[in-house]
Automatic annotation (TrEMBL):
<feature type="domain" description="E3 ubiquitin-protein ligase synoviolin-like TPR repeats">
    <location>
        <begin position="56"/>
        <end position="124"/>
    </location>
</feature>
<keyword id="KW-0863">Zinc-finger</keyword>
<keyword id="KW-0862">Zinc</keyword>
<dbReference type="GO" id="GO:0036503">
    <property type="term" value="P:ERAD pathway"/>
</dbReference>
<keyword id="KW-0479">Metal-binding</keyword>
<comment type="pathway">
    <text>Protein modification; protein ubiquitination.</text>
</comment>
<dbReference type="InterPro" id="IPR057992">
    <property type="entry name" value="TPR_SYVN1_N"/>
</dbReference>
<dbReference type="GO" id="GO:0061630">
    <property type="term" value="F:ubiquitin protein ligase activity"/>
</dbReference>
<dbReference type="Pfam" id="PF25563">
    <property type="entry name" value="TPR_SYVN1_N"/>
</dbReference>
<protein>
    <submittedName>
        <fullName>Putative E3 ubiquitin-protein ligase synoviolin/Hrd1</fullName>
    </submittedName>
</protein>
<feature type="transmembrane region" description="Helical">
    <location>
        <begin position="74"/>
        <end position="93"/>
    </location>
</feature>
<keyword id="KW-0808">Transferase</keyword>
<dbReference type="GO" id="GO:0008270">
    <property type="term" value="F:zinc ion binding"/>
</dbReference>
<feature type="transmembrane region" description="Helical">
    <location>
        <begin position="140"/>
        <end position="163"/>
    </location>
</feature>
<dbReference type="InterPro" id="IPR050731">
    <property type="entry name" value="HRD1_E3_ubiq-ligases"/>
</dbReference>
<dbReference type="GO" id="GO:0043161">
    <property type="term" value="P:proteasome-mediated ubiquitin-dependent protein catabolic process"/>
</dbReference>
<feature type="transmembrane region" description="Helical">
    <location>
        <begin position="6"/>
        <end position="32"/>
    </location>
</feature>
Amino acid sequence: MARSYGILFAITIFRQDFSFMFLSMVTALLLIKSLHWSAQKRVEYIETTPTVLMLSHWERKVVYTFYLELIRDLLHLSMYQCFFLVIFVNYGVPLHLIRELYETFRNFKLRIVDYIRYRIITSNMNNRFPDATLEELNKLVIVIVIIIIIIIIIIIIIIIIIISCPQRLKGIRQQRLKELVNRG
């Protein structure tokens, strides 16, 4: 919502150049911004949806998404710098754009730091985590079989308890009825 006020600031800056061309450019800007917002919401929806079909995923989706976001932030930063320079040369210091320019620079800097961390971590991944040996995999299979047997035993115990509960309740009811009949 806060970003939509940028259009109003742009209109106030260019109020001397108010013409048909200016109105068409503002309309195009609004259209592009609305398409950008809808695309951004769609990406957020896909990222947070737990049940997305396997067809819509590909193997290195996270890496591609990261690179796309890095490129997007670079383009965003360069466009804001160009816009800032145009406004500065023609109209003076645009105070309302300083915050946006700073936020864009900060986001890009954080992406670069994340990229450097990612490269450091993935560069020595094979050295830090060697492949599992056949013996380790066999031990893992034995552990999995033991866990499955324990789960089956627990399920059988739960079923026995569920089946015997109505019989116990029936016996308790009959005993209480006998006690009431003997008292009365």
